[in-house]
Amino acid sequence: MLTLDRVRKIVTNLSYSKQPTIAEVARKTGTTSRTPQRRLAEARTSCREIVSSARHERAKDLLSQTEVPVCEIAARLGYATPGAFSRAFAKRANQSPSAWRQAASRVRTQG
After folding, report:
1. What pLDDT is attached to residue 111?
2. Where residue 8 falls among pLDDT bands split at 50, 70, 90?
3. Residue 17: per-residue pLDDT
């Protein structure tokens, strides 16, 4: 049986290289496209939301644990421009990627 957790994991893994589609998720799980669509609908979420969440979590990891420039993080996560990445990040985190990195750095040095 295809679970939401499995759909989420597949979408997350695919999202690091491109914007995954329901058809790709279905192909990976050996089901029809309707099955992952149903699981996502039952959870009141979407492929796009899972991708957005996964990218945001990965961005937070890269910002807090590395010195990789913001423009490179944007490219790694598949954003068209660093500005698009910064806007998407700020929308979810209520602060810019640079501000997030500075705050994470302060927490690391205090802890």
Report:
1. 59
2. confident
3. 64
Going from the C-alpha of 102 to that of each of 26, 49, 70, 97, the distances in angstroms are: 40, 26, 12, 9
Half-sphere exposure of 8 (CA within 13 A, CB side): 14
> Under DSSP, is residue 1 helix (H, G, I), strand (E, B) or coil?
coil
How far apart are alpha carbons 59 and 76 in whole angstroms? 9
CA-CA distance, 48 to 105, in Å (whole number)?
Answer: 30
Identify whether the C-beta of residue 7 lies closer than 8 Å to the C-beta of residue 40: yes
Do residues 10 and 25 touch, judged by C-beta distance below 8 A? yes
pTM across the whole model: 0.81
Q: Is the dihedral of CA 45, 49, 54, 57 positive or negative?
A: negative
